[in-house]
What we know:
Elements: H1 15-36, H2 43-64, H3 80-94, H4 97-116, H5 127-148, H6 156-180, H7 205-231
Amino acid sequence: MSLTAPDDPFSPWGLTHWLPIALLLIGIAVLICAARSGRKASMRQRVVLAWLILLLETASHALGLLPSTFDPAHAFPFHLCDLAALAGIIALGTGARRAAGLLYFWGLTLAPQAVLTPALVFDFPHPAYWLFWGSHLLVIWAAVLMTWLTAFRPDWRSYAVTLAATVGWCVVMLGFNAAAGTNYLFVNAKPETASLLDLMGPWPWYLSVELLIVAGLWAAMTGPWTRLGASR
């Protein structure tokens, strides 16, 4: 098995794509059933999940930093899914509301997009395949757990913080990508693989379209929680 060239490249919507999607949905269903039964996640469960995310993220980026695999366009943890993993580790381990808010919005919108349109070259059983799917699925499960199985509830402050953090990081990455010749966050160009950005027009206009869609979607994800809190 080569660490640098895929023997059998990943094929979207094949069996090795559908299986992790099915596993993701099963995990979400289990968590939602636990929430409906009135259960809450224990600190031990949260810490275990945080450690699993940390281990997978560390292994993933360690693999990318090996001399035989190093590529500055992919090696560094600058994508929002990487930041969502970091927010998940902090939120799970400490219960910090700002981190939980970032995890909620990033983990339940951007990570699922990566699951549906994965920028993945290596297929099963390559280590990169396991690390990609393990990390993304755990982040989404962590977002569900923190929102439905703890006392955290999203509000307009967490919405504003996440939106500001997202825009600010995109601006930073625009400059970094221009200087380094990379494309983190896909803000300087669309990904080479198919994605939802293909439906949003050419660069740079798709950035504005994406921002409007994300802002509206996150607002729709915030409103029900604030109304629920006001009715209590």
